[in-house]
Design a protein that fits this description.
By secondary structure, the chain is of the alpha/beta class. The protein folds into two domains: 217 residues, Rossmann fold, CATH 3.40.50.300; 85 residues, Alpha-Beta Plaits, CATH 3.30.70. The protein has a six-stranded mixed β-sheet with strand order 6-7-8-3-9-10, with helices on both faces. A four-stranded antiparallel β-sheet has the order 2-1-4-5. Strands 12-13-11-14 form a four-stranded antiparallel β-sheet, with helices on one face. It starts with 5 loop residues before the first strand and ends with a helix. The protein binds adenosine-5'-triphosphate and magnesium ion. Magnesium ion binds next to helix 1.
Length: 318
């Protein structure tokens, strides 16, 4: 069996009195693109810094492609491309110079250096700014330079800490597309506060809160596990059915966990709010309404959004 790209076991980190990580565990198999979410201070950057060998954990273990990061940080870092939260660059260098400097740091053989740099420049769309000073670049191009240095040594794993923060909507889409493209051949762990980005880019979402993993699932699963239906029902002229009977009928539908009646409508209809779980009750609702002599005047399903799930899992009041 091949080792997972990331294997984190019971990771803990204290900064003095502050417990940043309270025991985080997760595995990421090769090829996955994982969104790493959590409120400010949840422990995302700390986890990433430990993964990339920049800081040491207080307890627990981290392996990258089977290599223990603490025991063999040099070998582990060869497998990893890292875009830190602050994207530290050397402003006084030209893009080309900076990438040459990074290639040196990465110990890329001289014979391969220019072709590797060319590859990263092409990939990240840096051609037009290659000979500009980094200080002159817009935020979007700075992020591209950060991504270029991260892929220079062709790592298997990309750790991207908020790669699209501070970008304008056009640049967000461009960087997102670049990450998507990179994700086709590399494993990616990417933190972000932009939730639609996760749905657009990632096949899996990890949510951390207070230094612990509180959700781990496909993005569509995290939004499908609930929601509500608003339905407005009106009895046919030949039907006499009590409000009580309608409520009982609605309560008995598969997937419905709660029924709340709203004010009666002017057109003689009565609106209800149905809280639903994973089962979709709409077909059963249609059949039951016809059987009971009720006309469905309006039906609207509202799925919970990833934002709802995020808030529920990361705030106390939920
Ligand atoms: N160098 C440090 N010294 C002391 N405390 C730190 C240090 N770095 C992080 N912390 C604390 O550790 C906790 C986790 O911080 P971390 O930066 O990992 O969060 P994050 O999830 O990346 O947040 P953000 O979304 O704001 O980037 C926070 O309480 C933070 O204040
Ligand atoms: Mg952070």
């Amino acid at each position: 069996m091949t080792a997972p790209m990331i294997a984190i076991e019971n990771l803990k980190k204290n900064y003095g009195e502050t417990q940043a990580l309270a025991g985080i565990s997760f595995h990421v198999p090769k090829g996955q693109v994982v969104g790493f979410l959590g409120p400010n201070g949840a422990g995302k950057s700390t986890t990433m810094k430990i993964l990339t060998g920049y800081i040491e954990p207080s307890a627990g273990s981290v392996q990258v492609g089977g290599i223990n990061v603490e025991h063999d940080p040099v070998a582990a870092r060869k497998r990893i491309g890292y875009l830190p939260e602050s994207n530290p660059l050397y402003d006084e260098m030209m893009v080309q110079e900076y990438l040459e400097y990074c290639a040196d740091m990465r110990e890329i053989p001289r014979s391969e250096r220019q072709s590797r740099i060319q590859g990263a420049v092409d990939r990240c769309g840096l051609g037009p700014v290659r000979h500009k000073d980094i200080a002159e670049l817009s935020k979007g191009f700075r992020q591209r330079v950060g991504l270029a240095q991260a892929i220079l040594h062709d790592p298997d794993l990309l750790i991207l800490d908020e790669p699209t923060t501070g970008l304008d909507p056009n640049q967000v889409i461009e960087i997102r597309n670049l990450i998507k493209e990179l994700g086709q051949e590399k494993t990616v762990l990417m933190s972000t506060h932009i939730l639609p980005e996760v749905q657009a880019t990632c096949s899996r979402v990890l949510i951390v809160s207070n230094g612990q993993v509180v959700a781990d699932d496909a993005p569509e699963k995290l939004v499908e596990s609930g929601g509500q239906i608003q339905v407005e029902l009106c009895p046919r002229t030949d039907t006499a059915i009590s409000g009580q009977d309608v409520r009982e009928m609605l309560t008995g539908l598969p997937g419905v966990s709660d029924v709340v009646a709203a004010e009666p409508q002017e057109d003689g209809g009565q609106a209800y709010l149905l809280r639903i779980g994973e089962t979709d009750p709409r077909r059963a609702l249609f059949d039951a309404a016809v059987d009971a002599g009720l006309i469905i005047m309006r039906l609207e399903q509202q799925r919970v959004s990833l934002e709802d799930t995020f808030r529920r899992l990361t705030t106390k009041e939920g």
